[in-house]
TrEMBL record, chains A, B, C, D:
Segments forming a coiled coil: none
Phylogenetic classification of the source organism: Bacteria, Pseudomonadati, Pseudomonadota, Gammaproteobacteria, Pseudomonadales
Protein name: Chorismate synthase
Gene name as annotated: aroC
HAMAP family documented for this protein: Chorismate_synth
Organism: Pseudohongiella acticola
Catalytic activity: 5-O-(1-carboxyvinyl)-3-phosphoshikimate = chorismate + phosphate
SUPFAM superfamilies: Chorismate synthase, AroC
Catalytic activity, EC: 4.2.3.5
Length: 361, 361, 361, 361
C-alpha cells in the first residue's frame, strides 16, 4: 500500500497540498448509524485553525469541511466518508522565492531528492496544512468512541520550550491559547513567546495526549501492538521527533520495583505502563507524550544550498507559527483516536466483547 | 491484516511461544541472488542469546536457526524464506506457579482479558523469546543492505540505569558484555549490575541505533514516513516505552536556530533531524534511541491479583535478565534494518534510482 | 484495510454514492513526472458516460472530472492524486418508491441486511455510477503504461446476449455504439436491442480485455499471482459473474497437448495461457474475458419482498441500461490497467528491470 | 505486502518449495478457544494427497502436518498458528534434466525471466505441492465456520474433460476417486482416464465449490466484494484459468427476467447470483465454479526453448497427475473457507451480529 493511508480497518487516506485546489480524505470503515454532520468535525478543525491567537500564524483559513459521501439522512451508512476542505487564502507569491533553494530542516531537500521535483508552494504536500484532514477524520473516531463507550481522547501542552506545566487542570486546557493545563504558567508563556517573536526565532514543545475509559484488550501483538501503532501514528505528525508511552524515557533509570504497576482488587496502583501491557490496553488511561521540534521557518538567516548545490543564505518571510507544537494538540488527539478506533474494530473482529470496566477482574 | 506481520514489501511474519515446539518466521520479499546461509543469521542470534555473560539470564538456549526454504544453491531465489528455531531448554515446571496469577507489569493480565485464556508458560507469545525471529529476519535485511549499498546498521547501549556512556568508540561496543561504547564505564556497570542482582531488582536502559550510508529518499509521506515506521518497529519490541529520532525530546527546549541542521555545499552541519526530513531519509546517518523498562520478573515480592480478582503476592523465581535492555541491542538493529529494507523496496517501486551519496546535490 | 481501496502500491481508494454530492477517489503511488491533465481522464469517462447512444441509459451526466491534487505545473509530483466528479442530474424523486422494497437481483437486500440501513437513492453506493472513478483512475494507469512501455490496454464487446462477434477488427471497436469488433454484427445487435427495449427486458454480455506489450515477469506468486489479482479486479466490477484468463473454461475439455503453448526461438505458438504462466506475465498479450449479467432494473414486474418481509411486486421505472455490459468496456480496461500498474511497481521494487521484449530469451 | 500472504484479518502466509526441506504456513487471526489438533488438518490433507488412486500421481508423500504454535492444551490461543510439513519423497534426480529448459505451459520460463534464476526441482515454488499448506490452513477455517455457524464448504468435480456430471448426490462425492457427484459417470471417467494414461496425455476439469448456511452480509464493497475475493482466492490456485459465481458465463445469454432471482416471503426462488448480491452474501448458498487446465507435464514431446533460446524438444518423465483437477477439490474448499473466514472477521469488526437465517427479513 502506498504511504497516504493509515489504519487497517478504520482507514484514513488523504490528499492535498498546501496551495492546491483542496485537501481531502476518505474515511473508510466507520460503522453505520453514527449521527454525523460537518459541525461535528468543524469544532476540532477550529481548535487547530491558524490565526486563533497572536501566538500562531496569522494566515486566515476558513478550513470549512464538507462531507461529500457516506452520510445519509444525518447518519453514517457504513460506506466511505469523503471529506474536503477547499483552499482559500493561498498567497502563492509568498513562496516563489524558495523555488530553487532548500530551507534548512524543511522537507524541500528530501522531496527534491526523492521525487526529482516538488510543489514548492508552502511546502506542498509536506506542509502541516495536511494535518487538517487528520483532525477532521479523527473527529469521526472521537465521536464514535465517546458515544459508544464514553472514551475521551484529550491532549494538552505539557511543556513550551523551557517552561513546564506543573499544576494540572483539564478545565484550564481550553481556556488559554496554549492548551496549557497550568494556568499559573500562561503569562510566563505569553512573555516567552512575545520575546521569541521579537527575536524572530521559534521553539519546541511537548504535547501529552490521554485517552480515558479505553476498553480492555485493544492491540494485536506482536507487531501491531497498540503502543507500536500509537507510536507510528504520532511520529507521522509533522515536526514530531519523539514518542513516549507512560513513563517513557524515565523508565531508563527506574528500577523494576519502581516501574512495575502493582495491582490490587481495587485496580492498578500506578500507571508507568501508560495503559498498555504487552501491546494490549489494560483499561487504564492511555498516556502518550510527543516532542515537537521548533518551526524551521525563521526570519533569522540560515546557511543552506540551492538546487545546483551552491551555498545560499535563507531567510523565511511569510506567516509562520513560532511554535508548531501549540496547534498540534488537536492533531495528537485525532491520531490517537484513529488508532484506538482501528484497534477497536480489529478487536471486535475476533468476536471479543468490548469491556470498559475498571481495570480489574 | 493480523498483527504478526511487519512490513509492506519486505515482510516478516512470525509465530511461536516461549515454550512451544518451535519459533519461526517467514521473510517474504527478499530479492533473489543474495548469498545466504544459516551462519549469516546465527551471528546476530548469538549476540542476542541469553547466557552470554553473568549479566543476562542463565537460560541455555541453542537458538540454532534453520533455513527451510527460499534459498537454492546458496542463494535466495526471491521466494519466501522460512526460518525456524526449535525450542530446547524449556523447563515448563518453572512456570506452573503463575498459571492463575498476573505478574505485575507483565502481559499476563491483558492477554487473559483479550483472549480469555493464555499460554502462561514463560509468558507464551508475549515472551521476549519471540524477538529471536526478529533478529534472524533482520540479519537478512542487514546483509542485503550492506552488500548492495554498504549500509551499516549498528546499535549500542547508551545508558544503563543512571550510568551514561560519555565517550564513544564503535570498536568497544562488541568488546564488553554491555555493548557499551565507553570502555571507561564498563566496570562501573559491572558493579552496578552485581549490586542489583544481590538486591534482586532490575533496571532500565537506553539503546541507540544508527544506520550509516543510508540511501537518500527513503520514506513514503505522509503516514508511512520513514521515521513513523521506525517508531512503529522499535516500539513493537518488548519493554520499549519510548522512541526518539535525532534530537528527540531535546527538541522541546531547542530554538529553531539551534535545531535546524544548516547545509553547505559540503553537506549538513549537524544532525538534529536524525537523518530524516519530512519523513524521508536525507542521506545523513539515521539515529534513533529507545527506552527499555526494567525487567518485571523480580525476586522482590509485589502486589497483584489472581484470575479471580483476589489479592496475591507475586515473587518471580526462575532465570531472568536483570536488564533486558542489554540484549535489545541486536534486536534494535534488526528492526531498523527491516524498516530500511522495506522502504528501499518501496522506493525502488517508483522507479527511483538508489543513491548513497554524501548528502548534497 | 477496509473495502474501498484496491492495489498494494498503486492504490485507488474511492467514495461516493449515486445521488450524493460527489464521487471521488484518491490515486496513490503514481510516480512523479507524468504529464497529466483532466482531459486525459475525460476521454475514457466519456466512453463510459451514459446517453451516448439510444442503447444506453438516457441519464445526462456531465461526468466532468477535476484533479484536486498531485499534479503541479502539468506533471504528477508523486503525491496522492485527488479526483472528484460532482453529481449533477440526480432526480432523487425517481427512487423514493423503492425506499422500502428490495429490487430483485439488486444489492438492496444485502446492503439492508449488512448495514441495517441504506441510501436507497439509485442504489447509493452499490450503483454502477461508482465505476466512473475506476475509469478516471484507470486512465492514469493507462497513460503511464503506454508512455513508459507502449503497453496498450483495450477492451471490446465479444458477445451481446446470443450474438457473438466472429470477425475481429480493433479499428471497428470505437466505431459503433456496442464497442463491437465485428462490424457485420452491428445491425443485428441494433435490432436485438430495439426489440429488447420494446419488451422491457435486459440482456447479458461478454467483454474481452487485452493488454499488449506487457513487460515480462509481472506477478507475485503464490497468492498475488497476476491472474489472481486480475480476477479480483474484474470480478469487483458491478454485474460481473465470471472471469476467464486465456482459454478459460475451454481448458476444461482441452488435452494437455492442445492447451500447452509450445515455444520456439521465435516465440510462443499459441496463447491458451492468456499471457500468464505460474501467475507471472510471459510477455504475450494478457487476455481476459468477463461475463456481465443482464440489468436487474426492468419495467417487467417481478416478485420480491419489502423491508417487513411482505410480498410485493416490483416494477422499476427510471432510466436504465438494457445491457450494462456495453458500458463496461472502458471499466474493464481501467481495472486491468490498475492491476498491471500495481504489479509493475511491485516488480520494480525487487530491482528487476522491466523488459518488454518479444517473449523469448 | 509481498505475494505469499492471503487475507486481511484471517491471514495465511506460506513458504516452501517442492523439493526443499519443508513446506509451512502461518495462520494468523484465528480466534482463541477453537479445539484444534493435527488430525483436524490431516483429514483434508489426505483427501488431497497424491497416490490415492491410479488416476493421480504415484508419488508417495506422507504429508504429515505438525502444529508448531498457537495451540495450548488443545485449544487455539489467538496467537499465530505455525504449521509445517516436512518433505520426504523428493527424488531430485528426476528433475536435473530440466535444469536448463523451459517446459511448455509451466512456470519455468516466467520464473527464470522474473527472478533470473529458479529452483528447477519439481517446479520449486511454482509446484502444486505448495497447495498442501492451503489445505491445512483451510481446514482450520472450515472447522471454525462449521462449529460456530454450521457453515459447510464442500466441492466436487462437475466435469472431467468432455464428461459432465448430470445427476447430483453429495453422498457420492467422497465415494469415488474423482469426487464425482454422479455415480453413473464414474466408470466412463475411469475408462477415459485409462485411455488418456495410455496416450500419455492429460485433460482439464471443472470443479464446483459450494458453501451452505453462510451468514448474511459478508463482503466489503466496493473492491473487497465477497465474490471478488473469492475470484482472487480461486484463481490463485495452480492451473485455474476461470472462475464463475452462480450462473457465471451463462449470464451472458440470459435475459433480466430469467437471471434475476425473485424473492418471496419464503425466500429466493432461484440462485443465479450464486449467493452474492452487490458483493455481499445473501444467505443463499455460495456457488462457484473453476476451470482447471490439463497438466502440462506430458510424456508426449513438445517444442520449447532452453535458457539460451535454442529450440529443444521436451519430454516430461516422472510421476504426474493426468488431471490436476481431481486433487483440486479439497484445495477449492480450503480457499473458499479462508475467504469466508476472513470476511466473517471483517464483518464482525463493524459490530454487526452474524446471522445465519433463511434469507428473508
Amino acid at each position: 500500500m502506498s504511504g497516504n493511508t493509515i489504519g487497517k480497518l478504520f482507514t484514513v487516506t488523504s490528499f492535498g497540498e498546501s496551495h492546491g485546489l483542496a485537501l481531502g480524505c476518505i474515511v473508510d470503515g466507520c460503522p453505520p448509524g453514527l449521527a454525523l454532520s460537518a459541525e461535528d468535525l468543524q469544532r476540532d478543525l477550529d481548535r487547530r485553525k491558524p490565526g486563533q491567537s497572536r501566538f500562531t500564524t496569522q494566515r486566515k483559513e476558513a478550513d470549512a469541511v464538507k462531507i461529500l459521501s457516506g452520510v445519509f439522512e444525518g447518519k453514517t451508512t457504513g460506506t466511505p466518508i469523503g471529506l474536503m476542505i477547499e483552499n482559500t487564502d493561498q498567497k502563492s507569491k509568498d513562496y516563489s522565492n524558495i523555488k530553487d533553494i532548500f530551507r534548512p530542516a524543511h522537507a524541500d531537500y528530501t522531496y527534491q531528492q526523492k521525487y526529482g521535483m516538488r510543489d514548492y508552494r508552502g511546502g506542498g504536500r509536506s506542509s502541516a496544512r495536511e494535518t487538517a484532514m487528520r483532525v477532521a477524520a479523527g473527529a469521526i473516531a472521537k465521536k464514535y468512541l465517546e458515544q459508544q463507550f464514553g472514551v475521551q481522547v484529550r491532549a494538552y501542552l505539557s511543556q513550551l520550550g523551557p517552561i513546564k506545566a506543573e499544576q494540572f487542570d483539564w478545565d484550564q486546557v481550553e481556556q488559554n491559547a496554549f492548551f496549557c493545563p497550568d494556568v499559573s504558567k500562561v503569562s510566563e508563556m505569553e512573555n516567552y513567546m512575545a520575546a521569541l517573536n521579537k527575536e524572530g526565532n521559534s521553539i519546541g514543545a511537548r504535547i501529552s495526549v490521554v485517552a480515558s475509559k479505553v476498553p480492555v484488550g485493544l492491540g494485536e501483538p506482536v507487531f501491531d501492538r497498540l503502543d507500536a501503532d500509537i507510536a507510528h501514528a504520532l511520529m507521522s505528525i509533522n515536526a514530531v521527533k519523539g514518542v513516549e508511552i507512560g513513563a517513557g524515557f524515565e523508565s531508563v533509570s527506574q528500577k523494576g520495583t519502581e516501574h512495575r504497576d502493582e495491582m490490587t482488587p481495587e485496580g492498578f496502583l500506578s500507571n508507568n505502563a501508560g495503559g498498555v501491557l504487552g501491546g494490549i490496553s489494560s483499561g487504564q488511561d492511555i498516556v502518550a507524550h510527543i516532542a515537537l521540534k521548533p518551526t524551521s521557518s525563521l526570519r533569522l538567516p540560515g546557511r543552506s544550498i540551492d538546487v545546483d548545490g551552491n551555498a545560499v543564505e535563507v531567510v523565511t518571510t511569510g506567516r509562520h507559527d513560532p511554535c508548531v507544537g501549540i496547534r498540534a494538540v488537536p492533531i495528537a488527539e485525532a491520531m490517537l483516536a484513529i488508532v484506538l478506533m482501528d484497534h477497536l474494530l480489529r478487536h471486535r473482529a475476533q468476536n471479543f466483547d468490548v469491556r470498559c470496566e475498571t481495570p480489574k477482574i
